[in-house]
Amino acid sequence: MIRTIIFSFNRPIQLELLLKSIVKYDSFHFLKISVLYSFSSSEYEAGYQRLIEQFPNVFWIREQKHSKTAVWPLFPLYWRNYYWWLKYRSSRHSESSFKNQLIQMLEWFQEELVMFLTDDSMFYKTISVPALAVRAIQEKPAIHSFSLRHGENIEGGHFQCSNSLIQWNIYSGQDHHEWNYPFSVDGQIYCKSFIQRIIKKVSFKNPNSLEGNIACFIKDKRLLPIVFSNQLSCLVGFELNRVQNLCMNNNLNIDSKYLNSLFIDGYSMEINFDNNENSFFRPLKFQVNAVRENELLNIITLK
Fold it and tell me: Would the pTM count as exceeding 0.70?
């Protein structure tokens, strides 16, 4: 099994879509699901409580918040920790135990492999993790990882095909940044103990800085050069909104409060797109609907 940790903040309706897609497409029960979640109001809390009742087999952990405290640059000896502390004012204060809780979760769980997901993604094909890729990660954890968001259908990659898998080197001239990113919280599988050691060395405070800062560390050390994937991707992501202020992600600015009110009123989200035109992890054309019994409410359509 693969310990799968999903990060979620103020997006119950989008998280429900992801969890439903896992139930539908994890036919071989590869994934053991945990959710590290947080919210900013009682309305969002009510949404998460509905999900906790709806998915009792998921391991739910609420992120612990505390009053803003100063963070002094007494980090593990990695130079970028000090650079980030000096450059980014937000790095000088902490308002949650996100890093400590993530480390604790990794120590609790017994699975050898770990994968991270965010609540703005969903699976659209059967999840498959070949034994060949698992063995490669176990034998050389500093070299290999496996991606569920890549495949021959994704543009911009230079890869080799072997044994129904594709593989590529992230450090050798890829045409699109999606193919040369060394660490991702969007469906990439790693050796848990290897990633756990890196996480302890690097400063971060939320999923965005976790991804970006760990990626910097891995690139600096030239780690995890070889990535495997199936011939077709099975995971997609949709930037419907932005719920944090650390990274100015592209997004469609769909109000998370509005979406949550729909969820509280009994709606679920569905996202439709053409699988045959899926050439990017984040599809360019799709339709987002809210559905309830025989009701359908269109939220946005990108053609």
Answer: yes
Tens digits of per-residue pLDDT, 153-163? 999 999 999 88
pLDDT digits (tens, 9 = 90+) for 208-255: 999 999 999 999 999 999 999 999 999 999 998 777 666 556 768 789
Q: Which of 162, 264, 249, 165 is nearest to 207 (CA)?
A: 249
| CA 57 remoteness from chain centre | 20
230 lies in some domain: yes
Give the domain range for residue 191.
Answer: 2-236
The count of structural domains within the chain is 1
What size, in residues, is the chain?
Answer: 303
C-alpha distances in Å from residue 296, one per residue of 26, 271, 293: 27, 12, 8
Q: Give how far Cα 244 sits from Cα of 38, 64, 255, Å.
A: 12, 16, 13
- Residue 209: φ, ψ to 5°: -75, -30
